[in-house]
Amino acid sequence: DEDADEDEWNVSMAAATCLSLLAQTVGNDIVSFVIPFVEQHIRNPDWHYREAAVMAFGSILDGPESNVLSPLVTQALPVLIEMVKDQVVQVKDTAAWTLGRVCDLLMECIQLGVHLHSLVSALVAGLEDNARIVSNCCWALMNITEQLGDTSADTYPLSEYFEGIITALMRITESNVNENKSRTSAYETMATLASTGPKDTVPTIGKLGLAILDRLDTTIANASQVVGSDDRVALGELQSNLLNVLTNVTRTLGRQVSEISDRLMTTVLQLLTTSSKQAAVSEDAFLLVGALITALESEFSRYLESFAPFLYNALQNYEEYQLCSISVGLIGDICRGLGQDAAPYCDQFMTILLHNLESDALSRDVKPGIL
Hints:
By secondary structure, this protein is mostly helical. It is 72% helix and 0% strand. The chain has 17 helices and no strands. The longest helix has 25 residues. The termini are far apart. This is Karyopherin Kap95. It comes from Coemansia furcata.
């Protein structure tokens, strides 16, 4: 149905789910029943049949053995890549989802020299399309970099496309619209690219970190103008997305992050001051600080005095027990990273931790971490 919401549970979605469960259950035997349907309808002028054929193919990719699926995937890839440019949104969306499944489950079936260029080109073009398609194109790109990526390698097949993909993702995240979670998907893809990129992508990852930091600073500057509760939630979500990208950038840059660490910590401290009511933002800010401590080790000691009050508050925030739990982990990071330099803070840490162990108000889930 052309008006159906993609999250609406209807007969065709139920059928696709049923088919995927059948494929997982019976494995190879499903192929001979489904492929004739796919071949019969994948070029059908009626988009309902075209979309059904692609959905059926995507639904059986998890279950049968890869040696059975491999020739079929190799044959189908050029058609699927072409269908991401179909005239009908529903067909494009399902084609992008199916490509995402291929990249997730059967990356070894993709002949990189033959298919990668056209595949990446189609997915990046899809980022400029309808918000529904953006999310699936992002998911497919995430799967490709997760399957091929290796931070210890010098290069990987996506290296030549890396900067172009980041540029396209930055462009679509400039708008304030997060329809169908498309903006969130794009930031998640940046974070994944940043955490999987090999050595030759590090300069681009460094530039990405600066651009994301600029955006985070802008959200802090504009926070005072946010009035409605919906806008506040949207701002918090955006800040969490930006922090996640920065955390992965920091992990990949390692010691090189020291070039921007002053600015990073200044921004984090401002954010913790302005967003004290948003526990999720504080959690993500603390995860970024943890990545910074791991990267900088003893060099982090110059920030600890400014950061310690926020850490003490979070450790005593029993209501937001996940934030409290992350804070307990940060004490471990601080002691490991700073060694002897952490000693002046240890009395305060121990006092709070012992108090937390005694407290009936704190979730039991946090206490093993304290021990």
